[in-house]
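Run log // design_07
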């Protein structure tokens, strides 16, 4: 799934047309979606309708144009009933909010806690984090941060036209 889009200034809105209780109901029309995500660049976003009520449903939306949102639909599944909620019908004036979901939090936690997904960093078998890996070739110019030192395990090759800048007072150690 692509990176999702979030907006901090998205105010709650209300439905101006009922939303059916089927995964085929893929258009959500609201009163005012100013400052809401747009889905530009293929970045979907989550909404919740009727938060805290028995009819609460979270929905993954793929886009917004003016006050109309389109529900994610890849031809296999839709964004209706996301985040362990059920697909239900929603009446006119139901409250709609832009939301961060448990799905978002779970994916972020999985990434943070899976060191195999990180560039560099200590690695090893099981919980043994004893091996530090780095590339053997510098392919893009890089400046070490001022007031910082850097270390690399060598040998290392620097491509033609590429520079590594070490500021005064800093050290780059290759061991």
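design_07 sequence
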């Amino acid at each position: 799934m692509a990176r999702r889009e979030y907006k901090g200034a998205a105010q709650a809105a209300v439905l101006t047309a009922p939303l059916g209780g089927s995964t085929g109901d893929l258009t959500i029309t609201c009163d005012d979606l100013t400052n809401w995500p747009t889905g530009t660049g293929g970045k979907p976003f989550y909404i919740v309708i009727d938060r805290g009520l028995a009819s609460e449903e979270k929905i993954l939306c793929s886009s917004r144009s003016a006050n109309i949102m389109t529900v994610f639909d890849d031809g296999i599944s839709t964004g209706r009933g996301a985040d362990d909620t059920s697909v239900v019908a929603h009446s006119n004036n139901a409250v709609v909010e832009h939301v961060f979901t448990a799905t978002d939090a779970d994916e972020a936690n999985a990434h943070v806690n899976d060191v195999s997904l990180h560039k560099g960093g200590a690695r090893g078998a099981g919980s043994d984090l004893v091996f530090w890996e780095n590339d053997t070739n510098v392919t893009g110019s890089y400046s070490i941060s001022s007031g910082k030192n850097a270390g690399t395990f060598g040998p290392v090759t620097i491509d033609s036209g590429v520079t590594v800048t070490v500021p005064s007072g800093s050290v780059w150690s290759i061991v």
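The chain has two domains: 13-107, 132-174.
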